[in-house]
Design a protein that fits this description.
By secondary structure, the protein is mostly beta strands. It has 2 domains: 85 residues, no CATH class; 164 residues, Immunoglobulin-like (Sandwich), CATH 2.60.40. It contains 1 helix and 17 strands. Strands 1, 2, 7, 8, 12 and 13 form a 6-stranded antiparallel beta sheet that branches. Strand 16 and strand 17 form a beta hairpin. It starts with 6 loop residues before the first strand and ends in an 11-residue tail after the last strand. The structure holds calcium ion. Calcium ion binds next to loops.
Length: 275
């Protein structure tokens, strides 16, 4: 399916609070009632909602396991193509701290894959992937992941550590537990296991990555824009600068896990192509 209603944009001022000042609603945690991985899109929101507020820091949840980058990527800016399958695989297992880094910057980091809902019920199998489209290894510390609750309360997580080399893919996971994320290969965990986590809403939501108050990329979807168990995928070979072109996105076709279901996507690897 195409994602004509998705929105990706850069260069937009992010109007969300820093983690220290964040307030979260307390309330219900709706149960998903949507379709199976082979069926229709999800029909309910898994984001928390309700009145009240509770501030909580997020940094302790970060568990980087891999720098996720590839030192062999060939892209140099957002206007070039994503790495394709002919590129050498990402074999990095730990950050090389001797490599000079750049901070996240507009045009150098793009959201290219999003698993809004991996399954029905309480779902902690959500994840998303970014690609470094610049020429410099990016130090992801300080990157802010943002997604509001269903009542539009801002929720952010400030990334504590992580590096992604030029052309490299980097996977942010809600959960680092293989039983929750279906054996997902990931680079960083942004969830804490609490209801205050950043959740990707199933009835429609927005995901942003920002740095220094500037939004670097933004993806918006509705319940009609994804299939449960399949990531929304920006196709390999297309320019991330074109991820505003909603017709270019599609459902992933590669299977990355069969643990407790069948899950489609290419976490940490070049994306599938689209029909
Ligand atoms: Ca991928």
């Amino acid at each position: 399916m195409k994602y004509r209603r998705l929105v990706a944009a850069s260069g937009v001022l992010l109007l969300v609070s820093a983690c220290q000042g964040r307030e979260r609603p307390r309330g219900s945690f709706p149960t998903d009632t949507g379709a199976s991985p082979s069926g229709d899109a999800a029909s309910s929101d898994d984001a928390w909602s309700g009145p009240g507020a509770d501030a909580e820091m997020w940094g302790d949840a970060a568990t980087p396991t891999d720098d996720g980058g590839s030192d062999t990527g060939t892209t140099t800016d957002a206007g070039t193509s994503m790495p394709d399958s002919s590129a050498p695989p990402d074999t990095s297992t730990s950050p090389d701290t001797s490599v000079p880094t750049c901070p996240p910057a507009p045009g150098a980091l793009a959201i290219v894959e999003v698993m809004v809902a991996s399954q029905s019920g309480t779902d902690r199998g959500e994840w998303f992937e970014v690609v470094n489209t610049g020429a410099c290894t990016i130090d992801l510390a300080g990157l802010e992941i943002g997604s509001p609750t269903s009542d539009l309360t801002p929720v952010t997580h400030s990334v504590t550590a992580g590096r992604v080399s030029p052309g490299g893919h980097f996977v942010f996971a809600l959960s680092g537990d293989p039983a929750d994320n279906h054996d997902l290969p990931f680079d960083y965990v942004y969830g804490t296991g609490s209801r205050d986590d950043v959740f990707l809403g199933n009835t429609g939501d927005v995901l942003t990555i920002a740095y220094g108050g500037l939004t670097l990329d933004r993806i918006e979807w509705t319940d009609a824009d994804f299939v449960r168990g399949m990531s929304m995928t920006f196709p390999r070979g297309a320019s991330p600068a074109d991820n505003d072109d909603l017709g270019l996105w599609c459902d992933a076709s590669s299977v990355y896990s069969t643990r407790d279901g069948v899950f489609y996507g290419t976490p940490g690897a070049p994306n599938d192509t689209c029909p």
